[in-house]
Design goal:
The structure holds two protein chains of two kinds. Chain A is of the alpha+beta class. Chain A has two domains: about 1-25 and about 300-325; about 35-160 and about 195-295, Immunoglobulin-like (Sandwich). Helices cover about 20% and strands about 30% of the residues of chain A. Chain A contains seven helices and 13 strands. Chain A has helices at about 1-25, 30, 55, 150-155, 165, 185-190, 300-320; strands spanning about 35-40, 60-70, 80-90, 90-100, 115-125, 140-150, 200-205, 215, 220-230, 230-240, 255-265, 275, 280-290. In chain A, β9 (about 220-230) and β10 (about 230-240) form a beta hairpin. The termini of chain A are far apart. Chain B is an alpha+beta fold. The longest helix of chain B is centred in the N-terminal third of the chain and has 12 residues, at about 75-85. In chain B, the strands form eight sheets. In chain B, strands 12-3-14-13 form a four-stranded mixed beta sheet. Chain B has a three-stranded antiparallel beta sheet with strand order 15-18-19, with helices on one face. A two-stranded antiparallel sheet of chain B has the order 1-2. In chain B, β8 (about 195) and β9 form a beta hairpin. The chains are: A alpha+beta, B alpha+beta. At the A-B interface, α5 and α6 of A face β10 of B.
Chain lengths: ~325, ~425
Amino acid sequence: MNRVGGKTVAVMALAVGLAGVLTLSGTRMAASQGTVLTAAKTDRVVPVTEPWSSFWNRVPKVSIPLSAQQVTPPMGGHRWTLEARAVQDGERLYIELEWADPTPNRSVAAPQLFTDAAAIEFPSVAATSVPALCMGDPNATVNIWQWKAAWQADVHRGFQGGVRHRYPNADVDGYPFHEDPAFSPGRYVDNPFSATDRTSPVDNLVAGGFGTLTADPAPVVQGWGAWRDGTWRVVFSRPLAVGREGNVELGPDDWTDVAFAVWDGAADERDGMKSVSSFVALDVSPKPMPWGPGFPYWPAPFFVFLALWAGFAWMVIGHLPGKGRT
Amino acid sequence: MPDVFNWQLGRAMGYRFPAAYPKRQFAFVFNINRCLACQTCTMACKSTWTFSEGQEYMWWNNVETKPYGGYPQGWDVKTLALLEQANPGGQVWDARPAGRPGSIYGVFKGQTIFEAAQAKGGQEQALGYLPTDEEYRSPNIYEDTARGRRGEPGVYGMGTSLPEHTTWFFYLQRLCNHCSYPACLAACPRNAIYKRPEDGIVLIDQARCRGYRKCVEQCPYKKPMYRATTRVSEKCIGCYPRVEGTDPLTEGIPMETRCMAVCPGKIRMQGLVEIDPRTGDWKPDPENPLYYLVKESKVALPLYPQFGTQPNGYYIPPRWVPREYLEQMFGPGVEHAIEQYLAPPRELLAVLQLFRATQRIIFKFEIRKGPKVRDVVIGGRKWSMYNDTVIGYDSAGNEVANLSVVEPMYVRPRKYLNSI
């Protein structure tokens, strides 16, 4: 009994000690387990609209496991992996996501067409109570940045909604009252989905439980995606602080939880039909970014030097006495 | 999943939300026997609600030729096949009266679209599929195409003797059924679809919708439709300003929808029925023509009641069509409904005159008895016809229809035959 009692006391003491250390250090269990995505400081200009720029290859990446959303209908998605990179420049936070997708789906111009999309979710208030992963809860809302390939097509090429975007040879006599917004009710009631003048492919959303997702009309989150050889890369960018209700506020030395989701348009994925990650830690770090291997530039000056030296040596040898022309 | 009582199935069933019923319910009766597929209803709806960009393919009201036609193509057989796949051989009715009030067609023993989705693991609220734009693009495909092959006995040219033609087709008139347990409403993860407490009309909140198309996928009647120019879904709104009496044209008195009011074939009657707040069933109201047709005479039957949404569109089945097909479409009440229609009781014959007699919604009718006109034999039985008069009243109690069974006729004297 004494031994058992001693063990129990020891375990409890350890637990209390650990809790004390975690509390003093500000470490939160939910965020401290496993993966940490570090957004180190950079002084360079971050290429937001060039997800395939060599800049991003040099930012250290972490793998984030995704699984099917199985909490609430409609369910969907599958088990696979996403890669994430992050940097900050003291003003803005930049997160790049990279995932494999054999087909880019950029159109929502027909009933059966769904867009590829990706989202980043933060607790609205960083480093306090961790909200429910799925859409948060009423007392702890979440801030979601959702990029859509279809929205990007609108920004890039103009609104892609008309029948001629789907059927270029379609012929229509005319549309009565075409200028009257009442006949496009989604637009008439300012549904952000119906907007034709989108300036960012990223929607900024706040949710406090299932079915409460609400768009913040201010386009504070910018971003751009590019698909190449079976892979999407998407960059999200937002000022660290925006001072808007429900939006995550970050400092240049801060950290929070972050979760990710990806939708595959080719598999009709939308809404809850998606692959999701758990919360992982995002460390907004003031330390300078440790530049990864990137492109190996260092041999170039070496070879130039070698070539010059060899040339010089050849000239010297060619002019040595006794080696003259016969 | 809460249990709700579906009186069309004669039993309780699982549904996403607990029972909550409107005060009155939008409902309609279509007499398939009279329809000639002129599509006046279709064009009235189109020219009122869906003439804008992005709505080119939308026909909130459509008329299709059965058995092959469908808008979107194959909408009903695809859902029937999904249900059969989910519950092989089990989609059957016990047509014996169940003995409890409300179960007028017997008891459905199979799975509804909600129950089949639960049985599959509950990943969705209801079993369904998403049509492609190709499936919507020929709304009147197989128009007038009959079942049966040319040149074979009992088929084209020879298959038209009653009681069941072996060569047959019929027109099915469709719009949103404003169901009592709407699958679109259950399917919406945004809770953007709602059923109005005042009249049971089902609407999509255009501000909340995020274009997920779960309603398009899970409505078995395929009446919510996606609009690519607003990136959200739209559906039949039951011409609610008319039904409310707020459209200036109505002068404050509830009026039938556009598609109902224009019908030249006089096949349509639409109205509002009172709902019992406890059971969700129709309150006994034998003076309401819809109540009389659906609950008393039972001449009009719900469309695919086995889907489980308790649709509020009712049909007088076409009398020449093989019963097996009709029972798949309208449930076990088909035989009785056709008997009623072939030799209508005195009251039914009078109420049938009210179809399209006025644009106003008829809340109450009254029959003034008239003399016997003739005796005939129908199906081996004597049937007597009476020249009764039926009077319809609107919501304010104004007389808005007054018709006799025998249409008044004037024969011009012989000496004026060629005069103008």
